[in-house]
């Protein structure tokens, strides 16, 4: 595989130059909204709203340095176990986000995809998702993936079921199954770069929490202590600069 040319950080995020290669795909777990709210003497909903505003504010900046794909872990399948009023508030915010995001995505030519299980989310939100995906499906170069009601374990499980069904129906042989076929069944098949080069989790917790379990096998993992509502341009630039200083081996000697 030919080496990719190195890029340097530019755009609106800062003037710091670095000759390391930028990631093609950055995945972000937006953690810390609840702790941010508690720290600032606010209700949990106040933290959720602040996190929502941060996602809206950062959407364009994610791509201004040359990143192709950005995935945001917005709501995990396990989050349904939280208090009902908190979950309902999240669903309302996602509905608002989709309405704000669509004109912004169309203006900036950002393709929008939503992955996860859609059966449990409100019908109005499902309709908004379909509208956003349909309106932006032809855009290239900037791809925003929202993981909503997403589970990495379920992603792998459903992919295995699909492959098993294809074997059962004689469409493929067991011997045909390899990593490429598996990746073509995962929800991230919507992306030109399905596996994140850099996975950021804000809030200081150092775990993946069921996000992109297959896809992050060789991702660089970055765990800043800043809570998501405080994760701005400077913090994003710092994460990318950290990534550029990494020497990625993929299990091989360099």
From TrEMBL:
Cofactor: Mg(2+)
UniProt xrefs under InterPro entries: UPP_synth-like, UPP_synth-like_CS, UPP_synth-like_sf
Pfam families to which the protein is assigned, alphabetical: Prenyltransf (PF01255)
Gene Ontology cellular-component terms listed: cytoplasm
Molecular-function annotations in GO: transferase activity
Pathway: Protein modification; protein glycosylation
EC number(s) reported in the record: 2.5.1.-
Keywords: Transferase
UniProt record similarity statement: Belongs to the UPP synthase family.
General function of this protein: Catalyzes cis-prenyl chain elongation to produce the polyprenyl backbone of dolichol, a glycosyl carrier-lipid required for the biosynthesis of several classes of glycoprotein.
Name under which the protein is recorded: Alkyl transferase
Gene source species: Eruca vesicaria subsp. sativa (Garden rocket)
